[in-house]
């Protein structure tokens, strides 16, 4: 315990003292938007920061965000959860069934229950029977994949527009709202002005882009998206500001010492995995109820795994998970709206590389400068020579971006110390 | 502790101290696995019953169709790609690496090998070997990306191989659509150029089972020698078991990660060769079978990463897969076969863990009993 203050000082020593964390965050955000704005004006590709793109990106972000939070809750209590994909599949199926039978809200609840079912199996297998956490996760993925198919064969085959790989469509969805004043929402029948739209249409450098990005998350937002976004601060608050959260995290960092202080590690790990499963299930339900209006086989499309990647990318913190999920959701959203103008992204990469080159040259970091220079040249050459990126290749783009981000960011990560290690009370390790 | 000592389990009745520890482990493993399979069948029967299907009907259908000689060949045919992919996964497991990327590796290898095979003309045995070697190199090349990311950037192979699976699908589609696709008027089933006769592997039983089954057995044998009987295998297992301890003995974990991942990818490259060299004679998005990478993981787990276990598990899964058509005719949803496979793996892994735990307790007890009697006399 006496090491606590010393580790604190070493971490603060590395940070830039002048502006602090939130200042630095704001500076980075504004710089990024400025680069995007420059790219937009240079290439004339207005969709880069339009509210339409951002809105699509938000809808694509939410399931990945929930998957990432699911991974976070599991690993914070010390259990790897490779089975998130499977728990999401349970969520899509049960969510679609519930929404079809009893309406969208009941569907979301049932999706959470379906995910918790998967989380419960994972908990029993890994905690009660002590089997390898990765293996149990993989088996849950298989069980969910084929279990959902089996259930569809029983419940959906023979229904109108239903079949072995698809559920009947739902009649109603989760309502969406426009924020008043920001995005022209109604207040008691009176339509407020759409301020952000006005700014967005002016096309001013940086200001129009910020307006477009904000309007995407304030206009036509599903209530389910807002609920999912609220889970980020809620998770952070529970895990870092309550004693329950402290105990949860301690069973992932050092279960032996937690147990010695009277924490029931086993019970907390069950809680953590049930919450994890519920979040994954909700993410699945979002896919089959909000993103579309029916269950389809393969609907999750690996989002559970991408959620795990965003969790690593986000350094096992809720805000970081949100950042990673947004990056992924945005690159998927831009893929939808961009079409051929996706080559504009090369210019964006070139601008980022140029900025990195300037900064690292100023700090006299040779290796990073060289890497940035190489990236700058490659991106510029790509921008000037490639006229069209084939559709098939852009399919792989979000995964490639994730991999590149992981490769460049994974040096400073700190996972929970005992995540993945099996634990049995009373046994020494 | 005293409570567990007096508890007599099933295991204690079956095993007697007169048996050597090796036989004891073997009996426990085989018995435990059989018990787990029966348990899984029981769970599936309950599932069938809850959903209003007759479990006895389903099981008798499975047994009837399974004992037919034609079905036996069908079983071996379906087991062949499973043996390759399970062995690929098992090589990774020996180094404590979880290669989920077999799926992308074998599909990439299938495309490259089929295309490269159509470029050259060689005498028959050389042509087939050339394609097999290209497939292995292509599989290893794709796996090398994950290997390097793990060895030099510390990116967990589970994450990187999953991402690489999706990237592989995009790259394969792009290569196929833009360069390798053979245009034939009015043919919807698009493929790469059809391979000549010299590039086709002979059948063992005409039209039912081709030579890749023997290649699969050969690969399993090589796997056994390499991992359990060679210096390299010893270093691999040592590093996989405890990388830090092994590195003090001069075994570089980084090298072991790269080498084992390359071997794993090379074996993965052979998964689709049964189809490319013996059935479709080309690569095609609908002609080349998918999902074998994931099936291989379950087979490897079921076979406990041991060569003999893998062959048995692959044959069991091949058998279950071969009965699915008959099940559908008997009005049982054939997806139950896949559910059954997943449940079998889950129960086998759980029972296995419990047996090992119990065996360890027994060994400790016997050692203590020996000590106590030795001290008294």
Report on this model:
The complex is a heterodimer of chains A (429) and B (377). Chain A is 70% helix and 2% strand. By secondary structure, chain A is an all-alpha fold. Chain A has one domain: ABC transporter involved in vitamin B12 uptake, BtuC. In chain A, the strands form two sheets. Chain A has a two-stranded antiparallel sheet. In chain A, strands 2-3 form a two-stranded antiparallel ribbon. In chain A, helix 14 packs antiparallel against helix 18. The two termini of chain A are 19 Å apart. Chain B is mostly helical and 377 residues long. Chain B folds into two domains: 23-53 and 333-361, no CATH class; 75-331, Orthogonal Bundle (ABC transporter involved in vitamin B12 uptake, BtuC). Chain B has 17 helices and two strands. Chain B has helices at residues 2-6, 10-14, 21-50, 55-66, 69-94, 102-119, 124-153, 157-180, 212-228, 231-241, 243-248, 253-268, 273-278, 292-302, 307-322, 324-329, 335-376; strands at 203-205, 209-210. In chain B, strands 1-2 form a two-stranded antiparallel ribbon. In chain B, helix 5 (69-94) crosses helix 14 (292-302), helix 9 (212-228) packs across helix 10 (231-241) and helix 14 (292-302) packs across helix 15. The longest helix of chain B has 42 residues, at 335-376. Chain B is globular and about 80 Å long. Residues 1-6 of chain B have low confidence and may be disordered.
């Amino acid at each position: 315990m006496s090491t606590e203050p010393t580790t604190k000082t070493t971490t603060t020593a590395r940070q830039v003292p002048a502006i602090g964390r939130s200042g630095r965050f704001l500076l980075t955000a504004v710089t990024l938007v400025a680069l995007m704005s420059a790219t937009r004006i240079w290439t004339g590709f207005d969709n880069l920061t339009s509210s339409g793109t951002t809105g699509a990106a938000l809808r694509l972000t939410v399931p990945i965000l929930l998957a990432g939070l699911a991974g976070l809750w599991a690993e914070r209590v010390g259990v790897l959860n490779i089975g998130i994909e499977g728990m999401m599949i349970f969520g899509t199926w049960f969510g679609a069934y519930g929404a079809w039978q009893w309406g969208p809200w009941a569907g979301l609840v049932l999706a959470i229950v379906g995910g918790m079912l998967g989380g419960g199996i994972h908990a029993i297998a890994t905690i009660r029977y002590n089997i390898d956490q990765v293996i149990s996760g993989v088996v849950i993925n298989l069980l969910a994949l084929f279990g959902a198919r089996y259930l569809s064969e029983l419940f959906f085959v023979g229904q109108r527009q239903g079949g072995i790989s698809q559920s009947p469509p739902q009649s109603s969805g989760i309502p969406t709202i426009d924020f008043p004043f920001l995005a022209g929402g109604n207040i008691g029948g009176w339509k407020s002005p759409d301020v952000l739209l006005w700014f967005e249409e002016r096309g001013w450098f940086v200001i129009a882009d910020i307006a477009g990005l904000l309007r995407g998350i304030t206009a036509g937002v599903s209530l389910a998206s807002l609920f999912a976004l609220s889970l980020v601060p809620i998770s952070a608050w529970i895990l870092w500001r309550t004693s329950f959260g402290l105990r949860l995290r301690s069973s992932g960092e050092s279960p032996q010492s937690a147990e010695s202080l009277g924490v029931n590690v086993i019970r907390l790990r069950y809680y953590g995995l049930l919450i994890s499963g519920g979040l994954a299930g909700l993410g699945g339900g979002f896919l089959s109820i909000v993103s579309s209006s029916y269950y389809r086989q393969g609907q999750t499309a690996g989002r559970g795994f991408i959620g795990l990647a965003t969790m690593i990318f986000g350094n096992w913190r809720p805000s970081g998970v949100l950042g990673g999920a947004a990056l992924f959701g945005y690159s998927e959203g831009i893929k939808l709206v961009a079409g051929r103008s996706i080559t504009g992204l090369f210019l964006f990469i070139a601008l980022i590389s140029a900025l990195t080159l300037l900064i690292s040259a100023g700090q006299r970091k040779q290796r990073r400068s060289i890497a940035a220079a190489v990236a700058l040249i490659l991106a510029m050459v790509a921008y000037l020579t490639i006229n069209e990126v084939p559709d098939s290749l852009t399919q792989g783009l979000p995964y490639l971006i994730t991999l590149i981000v992981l490769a460049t960011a994974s040096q400073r990560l700190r996972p929970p110390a005992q995540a993945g290690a099996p634990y049995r009370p009373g046994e020494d390790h | 502790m005293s409570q567990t000592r007096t508890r007599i389990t099933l295991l204690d009745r079956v095993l007697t101290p007169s048996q050597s520890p090796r036989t004891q482990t073997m009996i426990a493993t085989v018995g435990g696995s059989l018990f787990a399979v029966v348990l899984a069948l029981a769970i599936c029967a309950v599932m069938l019953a809850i959903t209003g299907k007759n479990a006895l009907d389903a099981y008798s259908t499975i047994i009837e169709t399974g004992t037919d000689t034609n079905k036996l060949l069908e079983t071996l045919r379906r087991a062949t790609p499973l043996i390759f992919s399970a062995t690929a996964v098992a090589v990774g497991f020996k180094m404590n690496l979880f290669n989920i990327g077999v799926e992308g590796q074998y599909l990439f290898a299938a495309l490259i090998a089929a295309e490269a095979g159509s470029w050259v003309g060689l005498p028959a045995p050389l042509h087939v070997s050339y394609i097999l070697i290209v497939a292995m190199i292509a599989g290893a090349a794709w796996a090398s990306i994950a290997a390097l990311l793990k060895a030099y950037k510390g990116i967990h192979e589970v994450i990187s191989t999953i991402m690489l699976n999706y990237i592989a699908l995009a790259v394969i589609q792009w290569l196929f659509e833009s360069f390798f696709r053979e245009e034939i008027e009015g043919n919807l089933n698009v493929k790469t150029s059809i391979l000549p006769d010299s590039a086709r592997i002979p059948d063992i039983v005409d039209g039912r089972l081709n030579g890749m089954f023997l290649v699969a057995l050969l690969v399993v044998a090589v796997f056994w020698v390499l991992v359990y009987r060679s210096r390299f295998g010893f270093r691999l297992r040592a590093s996989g078991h405890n990388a830090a301890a092994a590195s003090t003995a001069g075994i570089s974990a980084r090298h072991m990660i790269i080498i084992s991942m390359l071997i794993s990818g090379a074996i993965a490259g052979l998964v689709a060769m049964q189809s490319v060299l013996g059935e479709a004679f080309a690569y095609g998005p609908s002609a080349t079978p998918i999902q074998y990478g994931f099936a291989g993981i379950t087979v490897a787990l079921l076979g406990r990463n041991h060569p003999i276990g893998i062959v048995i598990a692959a044959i069991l899964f091949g058998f279950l897969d071969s009965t699915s058509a008959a099940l559908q005719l008997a009005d049982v949803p054939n997806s139950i076969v896949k559910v059954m496979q997943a449940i079998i793996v889950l129960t086998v892994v759980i029972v296995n863990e419990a047996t090992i735990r119990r065996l360890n307790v027994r060994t400790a007890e016997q050692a203590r009993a020996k000590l106590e009697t030795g001290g008294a006399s």
